[in-house]
Specification:
Blueprint (H helix, E strand, L loop, with lengths): L17 H22 L22 E5 L5 E3 L11 H14 L5 E5 L5 H13 L5 E3 L6
Parallel strand pairs: 1-3, 3-4
Antiparallel strand pairs: 1-2
Length: 141
């Protein structure tokens, strides 16, 4: 009866890593797809506490405004009270920054303006080459 003895199988002590690799690849694809969405946005240097006055020795600031209806204005040139589109505003800002590159740029928005209109203005200023954009505020009474 010795010929019929069963041989004992050696146990396999390996971990099957294929499911873990599949999960990691799916997570990698998810993070690669969501990372560009997360990083989009306009960088704004907001004051830490109360708004500070601009230094007296700084250049005259460029003031880009948006009114309650969402129309855009720039305080340079002859037609300061005429609304301009964003492309014309970007061209005027670029031209002004060539002559006075250190001039600060400030956004003045109506309190009732849509948030999107302010973001579009700030994105346009950034695309025009403005390094930092300030937000104009009115002191509290």
């Amino acid at each position: 009866m010795h010929g019929y003895q069963r041989r004992r199988r050696k146990r396999v002590a390996e971990i099957n890593v294929v499911p873990y690799i599949d999960v990691m690849l799916v997570l990698l694809i998810i993070f690669m797809a969501t990372a560009p969405v997360i990083t989009q946005g306009v960088k704004v240097d907001l004051p830490q506490a109360e708004a500070e006055m601009m230094p007296e020795d700084s250049d005259k600031p460029l003031v880009a405004s948006v009114d309650a209806e969402g129309r855009y204005f720039l305080d340079i040139g002859e037609n300061r009270d005429e609304a301009v589109d964003l492309l014309a505003l970007a061209n005027m800002v670029q031209a002004q920054l060539k002559t006075t590159p250190k001039a600060p740029v400030v956004v003045k928005g109506d309190a009732n303006v849509r948030y999107d209109a302010v973001i579009q203005l700030m994105a346009t200023l950034k695309a025009a080459g403005v390094p930092t954009v300030g937000l104009m505020t009115q002191p509290e009474q």
